[in-house]
Amino acid sequence: MRYLLCLILFVPFLQAETFSVVQPKTLWRDGLGKIHITQDGISYEAAKKKMKKENRTWKYVDIQYFDRISSKEFVILTYEDRQRYLGRDREYRFLITDGELTDELFQTISQRLGRPVTNRVLREVTNADYAVPVKHLHGLGGCEGELKFTKDAVYYVTDHKEDAREWLLARDVQSAWSMNPYQFEIHVYDNNRHEFSRTRVYRFDLKAPLNENFYRALKLKMYGLETTHLLMR
To answer: Which of 82, 99, 195, 214 measures 20 to 30 Å from 223, CA to CA?
Structure first.
């Protein structure tokens, strides 16, 4: 995999960062503490000593998934079992109260992880090779926006910030498919709670017909990436 090969060749130095955070909890009082992000991993330190049982340290290899919801909020999915949920993997949600998870820090974390991640914080996409207005189909209803394609990534740009996405073709995308000129779906490696697989399908209704030549070129590119992945195994 080209993305992983680049990681092997070059992983930038990560300067340690510490943030004050809130850990929201559904049935209990929210936790207060600090998040430490270092070269070796990410750790949570509870503010009160009597809550030290809440302290956690995860090496990057122990983090199954990282979701950057905003520059102030992120989720870590671990391999820890939740006994009351029949062994379901445990996730931790944190709200940063000082500082922010910058693009540069997130990029370095994702490179340290060396696996697919979710990024919902999008820079302005100015180098798109192709764009099409769409409706993203949810379980009920949906939201409107625009799919933008660059040589390396697919972006879903929308005013619904939690639904915005950046998918790197070589890291996050398994495949792309269109059954007709007005429908498009992208299969990505995602923390999908509704399926046993981590692959999630995002479906879009297109407001304009999908360009046939562009779609053919995209499929050829995806086929090339898939072949590269198989050869790297």
So the answer is: 195
Q: Residue 148: beta bridge partners?
A: 131, 155
Span 72-92, pLDDT tens digits: 999 999 998 877 666 678 899
- Amino acid found at 82: R
Structural domains in the chain, CATH included, are 9-119 (2.30.29.30), 130-232 (2.30.29.30)
Q: pTM here? A: 0.82
Residue 57 has pLDDT above 80, yes or no: yes
φ, ψ dihedrals at 151, nearest 5°: -65, -20
152 pLDDT more than 70: yes
Distances from the Cα of 118 to the Cα of 20, 21, 73, 172, angstroms? 22, 20, 12, 8
Cα→Cα distances 123→51, 80, 103, 143, 193, Å: 38, 33, 9, 19, 27
Name the region of 99 (left: φ>0; alpha: ψ -120 to 50; beta: rest). Answer: left
36-43: long-range contacts, CB 8 A cutoff, minimum separation 24? 37/105, 37/109, 38/14, 39/13, 39/14, 39/112, 42/76, 42/109
